[in-house]
Amino acid sequence: MAGTALLTGCTSGDGDAVSATRARQASAAERTRARAARDSAALGARYDEVIAAHPSLARRLGPLRAEVASHAKAFGSGGPGGSPSPSPSPSSSPSSSGAPSGAASAVPVPAAPKDALASLAARERELADTRTVQSVDVPGELARLLASVAASGAAHAYLLTEGGK
Fold it and tell me: What pLDDT shows up at residue 162?
């Protein structure tokens, strides 16, 4: 009985601190998840812009665009409780955290198809790098999802640059 009282006395204050820490971590993870969904949605919008500007690329870009849409869905875009803001961030340049641009339409699609593909590849690489860094700071399942989507983005970048050679 004395051991129980001692145990309870020792953990009472610690339990509150642990709960507060877990709540902060969960909140940070949800912000990361929502941002990842917004970034994927913005990347999907950029694919749409490139396809609209260069219809001849639609067949090549379609499967990659579909994967980007599935990434947005996996992160909770449009889903219950995980619905991110519908508008991407207003910045058209990377933030100080190295995050990719959220505004897909802020930059015109390059006139040459090769340049448009290079632009998409750069966005894919940038986003993959950001997600790799983010995966270190979030818990288990979200870290694995970020890492998996980062690997997919790196593969997309390769296919966009080397796949046509």
Answer: 87
